[in-house]
Amino acid sequence: MTPDAGILIVDDHEDTLYALESALSPLGFRLDRATSGDEALKQVLRGHVGLLLLDVRLPGVDGLDVVRYMRRVEQTQHIPVILLTGFGFSAELSATAFRLGVADLVLKPADPWTLRTKVRYLYDAHQRQLALEKELRELRARVRGHSENPARPGLPHPDALRLPRPDGARAGERPGDRSPDRSPGRFEDRDSLQKDRT
Questions:
Q1: Reading across the β-sheet that carries 31-34, which strands appear in turn?
Q2: What pLDDT digit, counting tens, does each position of 148-159 carry?
Q3: I want to staple 184 with a disulfide (CB 3.0 to 4.6 A). Which of 9, 81, 127, 168 is the partner?
Q4: Residue 6 CB coordination number (10 Å)
């Protein structure tokens, strides 16, 4: 799906198309229309549809058949679909629609504010999901590329790991080993310590 994906409104009545376009135009999305299931499928397969507002009863291929076909095609199977019906909700319609993964069923004529809220939520949620999937694919590709071409540096020479000695320290001497009253470079043995005490 392209970033400029719009909303496809599918109904075979001109007045319904006009009413739905008027209700959704404040959202600022591109609105496209189709008057049959065949025409709807052609537009969906072109890849510019981010959400489908689809009447159940259409000439030729009906709304449920459009959804069945979309769910079998990888590039269209996750596009959100809101089914519209002017004949009420039957248990059979509801069960079939939700089994096919329809996001919502809306009774015509639809309340404009409610319809805008549903469309905005479903469209934005789908776009976020697509963005996350794209990011995940890119991360996997980077990890795969890194594991195929590992740029592992060789181990450093042990001498390179030695820290520099502080000024005046002797080889093998740590900074805390020297007493503060002893001057650097002065070696004392047992005999000299005994003489100092007597």
A1: 31-34, 6-10, 49-55, 81-85, 104-107
A2: 665 555 666 666
A3: 168
A4: 16
Long-range contacts of 152-160, Cβ-Cβ distance < 8 Å, separation of 24 or more? none
Q: What is the CA radius of gyration of the chain?
A: 37
Residue showing tokens 């404040």: 26
User: What is d(CA 107, CA 169) in angstroms, rounded to the nearest whole number?
Assistant: 87
Q: How many CB atoms lie within 10 A of CB 97?
A: 22
Q: Is the pTM of this model over 0.90?
A: no
Helix (H, G, I), strand (E, B) or coil at 117: helix
- How far is residue 178's CA from residue 171's CA, in Å, rounded to a whole number? 13
Range with the largest mean pLDDT of 19-23, 74-78, 181-185: 19-23
- CA 154 from centroid of its chain's CA atoms: 37
